[in-house]
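The instructor's notes for this session suggest beginning with a concrete chain rather than abstract definitions. Hand out the sequence below and ask the class to guess, before any prediction is shown, which regions might be ordered.
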Amino acid sequence: MSATDWRSAAECASDITVDALFRRAFHVYADRTAVTWLDGRRSYADVGRRAWSLANALRTRGFVRGDTIAVLSETRPEYIECYAALAALGITVATLNIRLHPNELAACLRKCRPVALIVSGPLAPIAAGLRADAAGIRDWIAFGDDAVDGFAPYETMLRQASSDEPPRIARGSDIHNILFTSGTTGAPKGALISQRAAAIRGLRLAQWFGLTEEDGFVGWLPLFHCGGDESLYATFCTGGTFATFARADVLQMFRLIERDRLSWTLLLPGVITDFLNHPQRSAHDLSSLRFAIGYANMMPAVIADLTRACNIDFYDAFGQSEVSYLLAHRRSRPGELPPLRKLPSPLLEIRIVDDAMRDLPIGKPGECVVRGPSVMSGYLDDDAANAEVFAGGWLHTGDLLRREADGTLTFVDRKRYLIKTGGENVYPAEVEAVIGLHPAVQEVCVFGVPDARWGEAIKAMLVLRPGHDADRHQIVAWCRERLGSYKRPRYLQFIRSEELPRSTTGKLQRHELARFPLSHDQRVD
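After discussion, reveal the predicted structure:
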């Protein structure tokens, strides 16, 4: 064997793939419950057989390594089978956000150019309307066994195919899936996640949270989002149970936590308050739940109430699709206000830099740039965005952080959210953190609005907690005691939680809130 040959062989032998993660789970945990839902459950062996049947059916139809197949579906057991089957074939999964407008979905299809589309039955009419924008799709497949006009039945395909395990062909550099970003500042961008990156993300979560075979995940978060798919890989890495939910139905969550002794989940704005305040929560045994993950800086007092009421820990999250949702986390105990300082995750190098990529001293905010094996392989078909995001050989997160003397990281804000008012810089997250501690406030969002005198003025939109009251004068007095004068909001608007525009993961869409009209009665100075 030549030097070139053995080096190539060594590289192959040291590779890591999410395909290998799935294959190991199907063999090692064969008899354990892998997936559960309201009406059923499947063992790891059952999921494996179905995944291999799908893989063989797709091979028979001529799909090969390097192809892209799009999936438009809610979180359901078959989605997991698609991930495993396509990983084995080295085929990329283009995960489509079911909440996108059909025009946005069409743009995603034109960009990723899939050769097949797999869709859930309820979404088949939307998919059918996209045919004109998907000329390259030669197979249209619908989950289930029922005939859907123009779609091949998924279950029929599986029954007609062999369930033999397919040969190993995937490589760590193969693109496993495309995660389309939320598009809060423009059209969604497709983050390319390699098989290596997907596997590392799952392993990191399993290690960080100490997951075991006894842990079960409440999987209401979509599998087209990093919070959903990374949690799936972590669960299958450790032989736990993944419970699927078509939507964030809190009552169904209670029932499955109690029935299947589920132990962890993500609780994000828009869901966390429903979970905490649901009148049926105390009627269910939720004692198996040991921790939740979310965004503590958005509603710290609510999180303290949640952890106290449910006797669970909470991990304050900082991350993104391009890197992993576990870039940095920090745990708070039951009843504690979550600390804003976070511990950086393993297997990621993190720097805090200025615009010239110079490292900043401890305590000075700057952009967080990272590199490591979980970082995306780039944006799909977007050279300009890739040149910007990878400038200097590091991935630019677009987030402003501050490194503390003890090595922890404090989130300051998104770089693009900076408000410049009267020559002063104001970070919305700092103002939100103060207002969010008011006992009557459930949620708050702060952003800049045009102002003839100051250039920009600060506006805060607030949701009050059920059973609590507060007026503008009380909120202003609270801010006056805790913030410099230039950081205080000049406009306050109260709003109902259901009126807040959110992304799939519950994040507030500031650009939509900024379109709400200003009025004289909102002015507070």
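Then share the key points. The chain has three domains: 3-23+33-203, 248-414, 418-522. The chain has a mean pLDDT of 91.
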